[in-house]
Amino acid sequence: MKNVLVVEDDEDDAFFIKMACNRSGIPHTLHIVPDGKSAVDYLSGTGTYADRLANPLPNVVFLDVKLPKLTGHEVLEWIRSQPVLKSLPVVMVTNSMQDTDVNRAYELGVTSYLRKTPSRPEFGQAVRVILKYWLELNISPT
């Protein structure tokens, strides 16, 4: 079973991402954490996320930029510093279209930068396309 991690502090945005994932028709398990520190804990398998059967490494991460405790950029920088996570697809999902945020994300090795569009159907379609690609079509390294 494929796994998706969503790192999102806004409950409404997390709900819409969850609905888009559910509507994808692609079998996967969805894990949602509310802040950057929880994301690092989840990905490192520490604290409440130590059980790797219950909290497996994801096949793709949706990561908000503006997060409490650690920002999305800080989480992304940490991810790219971990040898086992270097090739993990990370999609920044954010309202921020500031050039500095976009450029920083790409400098840190983000896979994609997705704007949270005001159109929920359009945003949902984008999430489903990303899932289709990363969970079904892409061939990952072994």
Q: In percent, how helical is the residue content?
A: 40-55%
Envelope shape: globular
N-to-C terminal Cα separation, in Å?
16 Å
Task: Report the sheet with the most strands, covering strand number, pairing sense and barrel closure.
Answer: 5 strands, parallel
Q: How many DSSP E strands?
A: 5
List the strand order in the largest sheet.
Answer: 2-1-3-4-5
Element order, helices and strands? Answer: EHEHEHEHEH
Ordered list of secondary-structure elements with their pairings:
Blueprint: E1 2-7, H1 11-22, E2 28-33, H2 36-44, E3 60-63, H3 72-80, E4 90-94, H4 99-107, E5 112-115, H5 120-137
Parallel strand pairs: 1-2, 1-3, 3-4, 4-5
Helix pairs in contact: 1-5, 2-3
Structure description:
There is one protein chain. The chain has helices spanning 11-22, 36-44, 72-80, 99-107, 120-137, and strands at 2-7, 28-33, 60-63, 90-94, 112-115. With 142 residues, it is an alpha/beta fold. Strands 2-1-3-4-5 form a 5-stranded parallel sheet, sandwiched between helices. The longest helix has 18 residues, at 120-137. It is globular, with a radius of gyration of 14 Å. The model has no long low-confidence stretch (mean pLDDT 92).
